[in-house]
Amino acid sequence: MSRLKLAGQVAALGLVASLLILLTWKVVQSDRSNVAQDFTKGKRPMAVDFDLKRLNGEGSLRLSSLRGKVVVINFWAAWCDPCKSEAPRFQSAFERYRDRVAFVGVDTTDFSGDGRAFLAKYGVNYPNVRDPNGRVLSDYGGLPIPRTFVVARSGRVHAYIFGEARADQLDSAIREALAA
User: pLDDT tens for residues 85-143?
Assistant: First the structure.
């Protein structure tokens, strides 16, 4: 009986130690600057480059290959309710601005099959890439999502929309970036 009790105490101590390590890691990670924090502080940060596998197409997409164009980056996931509501707005904006603006959807922390089904359900046909473990999302601000960034031709973030993007917000941010 005392052996079992000792094993339970060791397991509990191990669990507490693991939680302390996780908490320390989280505090260190949250002190790390990200694009959303920098923009919110009034800075115009460079968009963090990424090279991710396409979800609706072959190969991968590197963000820096779009430099010189205004780019709309939208972080979403199939399980995200606000993402479902805003998906048709992004498709509509893509159709209006497709000749002047590049759109990139970033499906994050999702299964690829869920992401593909989401794109089909909402008729999204602009380029979408997959960020399965949220690494790129973390560089841009992390959860919660959705998050949208409008990047100027220079590669600097021109606008940031946290949460579900309204059509007027998105249009305004795109028009301002095009005029800059």
Answer: 999 999 999 999 999 999 999 999 888 889 999 999 999 999 999 999 999 999 999 99
Q: How far, in Å, are 90, 103, 156 from residue 150 at the CA level?
A: 12, 9, 9
Give 157's DSSP letter.
E
User: For residue 16, is pLDDT > 70?
Assistant: no
Instruction: Identify whether the C-beta of residue 101 lies closer than 8 Å to the C-beta of residue 166.
Output: no
The residues spanned by each domain of the chain are 1-31, 35-179
As a whole number of angstroms, the longest Cα–Cα distance in the chain is 76
CA 176 to chain centre: 22
Which architecture does CATH list for 35-179?
3-Layer(aba) Sandwich (3.40)
Q: How far apart are CA 97 and CA 122, in angstroms?
A: 18
- Identify the H or E element spanning 135: helix 135-140
Using only C-alpha atoms, the chain has a radius of gyration, in whole angstroms, of 20
Calpha distance 69→53 (Å, rounded): 21
CA-to-CA distance for 81 and 68, rounded, in angstroms?
Answer: 33
pLDDT tens sequence across 48-75: 999 999 999 899 999 999 999 999 999 9
